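Hey, quick one: can you model this chain's 3D structure?
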Amino acid sequence: MARPRRICSKARGHVHSVTTLRRSLRVRSPAALIRAVFGAAICFLATPASADTLGVTLRQSLALSQADAAPARTDGKLDFPVMARPQDWLPNQASCADATRSPPWQQLALGDAIEFVLCQSPALRQALASIDEQRGTVMLGEVAYRPRLTANAELSRDRIPINNSAASAVGASLTGAIGLSWTLFDFGQRDATLSAARAALAAAISSQDNVLLQTLSDVLRVYADAATAWARLDASIETERVAGVTEEIATARHAALVGTLLEKLQAQTARSQAALERVRAQGAWDVARGALASAMGRPVSQQMALAPLRGVRGLAEDSLRFAAVREEALAQHPRLRALRSEREATQARLDAIRADGRGAVALNSNLGVTRGLGSGGTTDRSLGASLSASIPLFNKTEQQARELQVLAQITAREAAIVAAEREIELELWRATQQASGESENVRASRLLLSNAEAVYNIALGRFKSGVGSMLEMLSAQTALASATAAATQAEITSLAARVRLSLAVGRMQLAK
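Sure thing. Here's the predicted structure for all 512 residues.
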């Protein structure tokens, strides 16, 4: 029992050649060598596939340059991290089971809309499928380090005529064989292939993050339009209510012979104008509501009411400067991470092509037993091993052509990275300027609303006491309505601008 343990212990180390294997196992006969190789292969097959544990090449496999995009191992299983919290909302997650049943249509918040859209997003489903595909490619790259065992069994039955008579001899035999093939050295071809697979996996993960950001941006745009229409409708209802109060006061003043008929008619006209604005706002809300329902995969006639904007937060005030977020965006934006990972995968493919042109060294062995099943049958045993080297010859032109193709792809990837950096930088510049400007608009609109409320209260008091005129009252009423709409619009636009800036940087902050 001691020998198999030593074999497994030795087999987990780096094996450079058959001579090294024989020296490490302290065996000299070919039969003992074959048994040792089969024992080592069994130990390898019992070990989970991993490039870190299957050290059968001369140099370690290249790790992903981006540690956060590399597959992490937890209890022997691969775990692929994505963004901070929105991964809970990806399709096929358990948290999506309840989210897709019935959103709170009477208090639909932005977070609810985002959750519903992400749980049903076809683009995210496609991105997840791409990650699974690349994960399988990584597993195949890891399996390439392991020896390959094959088992064959054959049962044959032969009838051999002895002479011209009908008599004949019947023979039967059973043959069983086990074969092993193991690439010991390939000048780093498997390393490069595995590195390319891991880089492609990192690119798929980053692409999923980029799709997630794009989906969030689309949901934010549709929801912001709906929130603007909803706020306009709410403001128009309040304006109509205020106009109704003014009309009641004017009617009462006219009945008491204190006010004039002109004042009463002016108040009625103002209320009619407010009602007309409410009808227009209702139509705009119905259109925006249908667009939001369609984005969520529901009928456009779906009735809903929006909750106050919450559930997201944009960047902090000190992060609205371009210089404060530029380096972060260029370093970790998912779009750039995906392109850089694709470039790394292409570079690894170039290394694999160059290593393929140098050849490989492989060990092949077989163990077979043939037993006759007839009377007086004999048992024959066969044992063989070979060490083969495969070196391509006269393939320089083909090698150069393949390398030229991959080098052109690397150049294209680098150009795409430069173009994406410029686009992201320009988008970030626009987002920072818009967010800064909208912050100033919020402060100005709040001040305007405060002043308009004060003016309206004064005008209302003067009008009730019979000092103020209807023209003064209507002017204050119109100013209050405009200030209310402007303040609400500024709040919505400012929040949307901050979230867009967060998306331009490459991250999304979700309030908990």
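One thing worth noting: The longest helix spans residues 396-465.
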